Structures are given as structure tokens and as C-alpha cells.
Amino acid sequence: MSWFSQTLTSSIGRKLLMALTGLFLISFLVVHATINAMIFYNDGGETFTHWGHFMATNPIIRTLEIVLVAGFILHIVDGLMLWKSNRDARPVKYAVNNAAANSTWYSRSMGLLGTLLLIFLVVHTSHFWIPNRTNQFATGEELDLYQMMLTTFQNPIVVLIYILGCISLFWHLLHGFKSAFQSLGLNHVKYNGMISFLGTAFSIVVPILFALMPIAIYLGWVK
Amino acid sequence: MEGNMSLSLKVWRQSNKEAAGGFEDYKLDHVSPDMSFLEMFDVLNEQLIEEGKEPVAFDHDCREGICGMCSMYINGRPHGPLRGVTTCQLHMRSFKDGDTIVVEPWRAQAFPVIKDLVVDRDAFDRVISAGGFVSVNTGNAQDANALPIAKEAADDAFAAAACIGCGACVAACKNASAMLFVSAKISQLALLPQGQAERSIRAEKMVAQMDAEGFGACTNTGACSAECPKEISLENIARMNREYIGAKFSSSAV
User: Which of B120, B11, B13 is nearest to B75 (CA)?
Assistant: First the structure.
């Protein structure tokens, strides 16, 4: 094995990959939340569609989209591999284990939360991204995503699934954001407070912003 | 005596590495609250010997919290319910009359059970042998002040060197990861001038050995540091990550 693949498949290297892809996916969330928040202009989707069109057609964005898909796949596959090797590291479990005394439940449940997010990701992309890109590929025309949102979020079960997805995202980010910095070795008395504050604030603000979208459409606030 | 306790114990018994183990229930009366947890086990073993039964095998040596021999997963936590304390320094006053106490060995692929509560921690020794040392030529010791060391670096190195290698970090971690132990050993040398010569190769080799032993990766839950009897800081794990990643991407070892 070359030194490079040896490094990236070591226990620390895998976590380095998790941290780098995780922070990259966090940067994607910023863009995604910002563009989608354009629906709150409540202008019949004019601003949203304008930026949606830019995201769907700009060549730089489309290239970055490939990087994004690769980022998702790396984060998921690497996460599953870590989950397996971590599970194998303790073949016999404790009969009594008081883990709550030394760590938070969500920090120990990143694999579970990630799996919930993966299920949500499949549901979510099959609602919007996959049909839109498929249609673009087949006909060159974009779908009216705004109208699709208005229709999709009339279903209370769909709204509930999206809210549950946002709750999973909240817990996943609450640990993942800070954990990424530690995995990268970025632990310093001058910056820890800021990282912790930013991580918590991001974990609260972004999922709430996302959850408000289906809720606002379902309740008719955004038409 | 007044104040003495009656306890129910559920203790993991396993006759050897290959045998299937299981819990045995024991009743213990007249346990003094001033006994250490290991002294309570001594009393149990006296009782078992009198009954003609096999005493419980458990690791112990100094019984003053500095050797790192004692282990025991007590009521779901390594070294029991207190923070910053080894099992030998845990006293029965931390329990109540009538309590049921469950005692298990450390559980990890890399720490196989040898007998009852005794696990094989040779994996730690092999990690140390891989690079947890400084090579020093023989000769007279040089003047202690010849190498200036910043106070902060000395303090951090000392705090890392407080690790007694008991393995509570591995036992507590949901991934049975040895990162806190290995990072403490890497840190204590990386912070001092004497450790500089072998700094990169040390990080590379010790982490490679840690992985080869079958310890898990780090999820940064912080369980290790919370349960560490020497309260080794998570900063050491971040430092090890820097040392390892830096060494891997810059050393000439291909």
C-alpha cells in the first residue's frame, strides 16, 4: 500500500476524511439553506427560481455538484467502514454499561443519526433533485421546483418526515461540527470556545431554517 | 460493626481465555465502608477459599493508584463511580447497604480475558515498543539546565506522562479505542526536546501498531478522558492527530 492510502485507511486517517468531508458538507448546507430561504420572500417563487436556475445551470456550480456527490459518498462509505471496525473492536459487550455517565447519547449515536439522515437524503433527493436533473438530462428543461415544493408539502406525512430529518441533522451536527475540529487536531485554548459556540449555533439555526420551509408551506404562510 | 454493609455481587467468572464465561452471584456481609474495593474482593476471596471454591482472579499491584494494574468495570463504568480514581482507591463508602454491584473485565478485542477479571494488556506494551521511547547514547548525564524547556511544555508533558496505562480509556470507549493512551505517550515525548529526534517516526509507528492491535477509531465522545483515573486531557488526542497527519504527509518514510 502506498503511504497515501495507508494514511487514509488508518484509524486517524479515516477520521481525517470524515472531518474534511463533514466540514465540506457543512459548507454545502450553508449554500443550500441560503438559496432555499429565498422562498421566504413569499413572491410566488420568483427569487427562489432565479437562484435555483443559477444553481442548476452555472457550469462551476454543476462541476462542484459532482464534488458534492463524491463528498457525500466518501462521508457515508467511510462512516460505514468506521462503524464496522469500531464494532469489531469490542466483540463481547458489557452486561451493564453506564455510558451516560461519561458521554452524551448523540456523540455515541453518530452512525445511527447518519443512517437516519441517509434515509432522509434518499427521500429528499427523490422528491426534487433526482426528478429535476433527470428531466434536465432528458429534455434540457428545468422543472418548476417551487411549484413542486408547494405540492409536496401539502402532505402532512411528508412534512413530518422532513421535520424528523431536520431533528436528526440537529443532533448529528451538534456533535459532528465540533468533533471535526478535534479530528483535524484543531484543539486550542484560544479557539475552542468559538468553535463550540459556532457549532452549537449552526446546529440550531440551520435545521430550524430547513424545518420552517415545509412547515411554512404546509401552513400556507408561503404560497 | 455498626455501619457495615451487606452487598450482592455479580462477578464475571471465566476459567481461561478460551472458556465461555458467565456471571456468578455472591453475598457479602459485614463489609466495612472504609475498605477499598479490592479489599472487599480480598474478603470475598477469603470466603470463597473457606468454602473450598476457586477465588476470583483480578489484577492489582501497588494499591495506591499509581501502577495501573487494577482494572474492573464496576456497575457499567471503568474503576467504578468516582472520577479520577482507580479501583484500588475506590472505597466501599461509595456504595450503599444492600447494593448489587456488577463487576466485569475490560471488554475489547485487543484485551482478551485471561481469567475472571484479568485481561491481557500486552497490546499496550507492543504499542510502546513500537516507538514510545527516546534512544539515548550512554555516557554521563548532561547538565539538567543544558536544555531549556518552556514551563508550559514541561507541564503538559508531565500531565500526559501521568498516564498509568491501565486501559480504562479503552474500556470506557464505545469503540474500544486506545487513542487517549497512545496520544498521552506520544505527547509526553513530542513536547520535550529529548523526543524531537524520533518525533515523526514515533507517531507513525505507534499509531500503526495501535491499529494492528485491533483498537477502534475515535468518535470524540470524551468518555475516555471522563473515566481516566489520571484525567488525561482530550487535547492529547488532538496533538496525536497533528503529529500523525503531519508525520505521514511530511516524513521521508514512504
Answer: B11
The x, y and z cell numbers of residue B88, run together, are 484500588
Among B88, B115, B142, where does a domain finish? B115
Same domain flag for B106 and B224: no
| Single-letter residue type at A48 | F
Domain that holds residue A188: 12-89+108-218
Residue A4, in any domain of the structure:
no
Task: Select the residue of A6, A7, A89 nearest B216 (Cβ to Cβ).
Answer: A89
Q: Distance from A30 to chain B by nearest Cα, in Å?
A: 24
Range of the domain at B78: 5-115
Distances (CA, A) of A153 to A49, A117, A161, B128: 17, 19, 10, 58
Q: What's the Cα-to-Cα distance from B202 to each of A198, A216, B116, B206, rounded to whole Å?
A: 35, 56, 35, 6
- What ipTM does the predicted assembly reach? 0.94
- Contact indicator for B117, B71 with CB cutoff of 8 Å: yes
Spatial distance between the Cα atoms of B219 and A99, rounded to a whole number of angstroms = 14
Per-residue pLDDT of chain A (223 residues; tens, 9 = 90+): 799 999 999 999 999 999 999 999 999 999 999 999 999 999 999 999 999 999 999 999 999 999 999 999 999 999 999 999 999 999 999 999 999 999 999 999 999 999 999 999 999 999 999 999 999 999 999 999 999 999 999 999 999 999 999 999 999 999 999 999 999 999 999 999 999 999 999 999 999 999 999 999 999 999 8
**Residue B104 at interface with chain A, using a CB cutoff of 8 Å:** yes
DSSP B48: H
- The structure's pTM equals 0.95
Q: What residues have CB less than 8 Å from B194, skipping those under 6 apart?
A: B134, B136, B147
User: How many contacts (CB atoms, under 8 Å) link A and B?
Assistant: 142
Contacts of B24 (CB under 8 A, 6+ apart): B10, B11, B13
**A-chain residues near B217 (CB < 8 A):** 11-12, 14-15, 82, 85-86
The CATH number that applies at residue B151 is 1.10.1060.10
Q: What is the CATH number of the domain that holds A159?
A: 1.20.1300.10
User: What does the DSSP 8-state code read for residue B109?
Assistant: T
Structure-block grid coordinates of residue B73:
468495570
Q: Residue A150 domain-assigned?
A: yes
Report the number of distinct structural domains present in chain A: 1
